[in-house]
Amino acid sequence: MTTNIFAFGLGVGTHNNKGEWLEIFYPEPVLSPGSAIANCVAELGLSESNNANLSAEQLMQLESSLIEAGEAEQAKIAGKLIHSQSPVVAVVLTQDSPPSTVPEAYLKLHLLSHRLVKPHGTDLTGAFGILPNVAWTNEGAIDLAELPRRQLAARLKGEVLEVSCVDKFPKMTNYVVPDGVRIAHTARVRLGAYLGKGTTIMHEGFVNFNAGTEVPGMIEGRIFAGVFIGKGSDLGGSSSTLGTLSGGGNIVISVGEECLLGANAGVGIPLGDRCTIEAGLFITAGTKVTMLDNKGNSVENVKARELAGKSDLLFRRNSTSGAVECLTNRSAVELNSELHAHN
Ligand SMILES: CC(C)(COP(=O)(O)OP(=O)(O)OC[C@H]1O[C@@H](n2cnc3c(N)ncnc32)[C@H](O)[C@@H]1OP(=O)(O)O)[C@@H](O)C(=O)NCCC(=O)NCCS
Known about the structure:
Elements: E1 7-15, E2 21-25, E3 30-31, H1 35-42, H2 56-68, H3 72-81, E4 88-93, H4 102-113, H5 127-130, E5 134-137, E6 140-143, H6 147-156, E7 163-167, E8 182-183, E9 193-195, E10 199-201, E11 206-207, E12 211-213, E13 217-219, E14 222-223, E15 228-229, E16 234-235, E17 240-241, E18 254-255, E19 260-261, E20 266-267, E21 276-277, E22 282-283, E23 288-292, E24 298-303, E25 313-317, E26 324-328, H7 332-339
Helix pairs in contact: 2-3
This protein binds coenzyme A.
């Protein structure tokens, strides 16, 4: 009986001078392949699992055992990688545990950007600490300790080594461009972002890893780590969603379907469907909000966190009083009973 494993990837990447991985490109990562793939890799008897650089002989052996196992697509990739001048790795994730090597972390980021898992669909605990900080250049990934020597070497040839960024995460589009997306400024989308088909990311937009969009959506604001934006929602110019990486606490922020975050608005609570936040207004979990019923009458004051996940809300800062108000399409009675449903 064939049982599935969590994921598999054959990748080619870059080592530093110490033989440590800086980055890995997986042309065709697979989610839930049969365990036959894992057996093919196990037969290679690698000493460092999910980290070893495969030799041409090992790749030839892998190619033929993958063919025998009926894994034609992956066998084809193994065949192509035999001729690689860069290090090659085979990663088997038997289950979805936190990544423990750079190749494992990169495979998980690929699963997200290839839309094989959605944000929070794979365990990325500790990934940030595992990934090395790298100079991303026109000559590929370079270890920061080796950068001065490489810069000088380029100058001696009359060239400039272009360092486009120094970061733990590369830009997504150098690894995969999922179909049906438009990205005005590719450096604003990190590998590990999940972009649903029909997503447009304008110049001011930004998408972190383990974050992204359902379809379709217009993103001119920032989607920080861990945030998922529902179908048909728009993030206005320079708007923000609070991420969970730093200072945002443990609440996972999400935006439901058909919401609008106005230009320069921000949200620090999960929003339900069809919610609007006025341009320039930042709602955090503790923001005191005056609830207005469908006649515009004040019903009561609540903290924004009590409105988490509720639909059909419009948040605005009253331009006369300065108070943050929330308008609903509910009558005072409906609104009251909804607000106290879980008391
Ligand atoms: C919050 C927002 C959605 C309100 O828009 P709206 O529902 O069309 O509201 P209107 O401007 O028609 O105003 C309706 C009423 O509310 C009042 N009102 C609107 N904003 C108010 C505020 N901040 N404080 C007090 N009253 C306000 C209006 O004066 C008007 O009053 P009236 O009924 O007495 O005439 C809008 O102001 C907004 O911020 N949109 C975001 C657009 C955006 O940023 N898009 C992204 C671009 S990149």
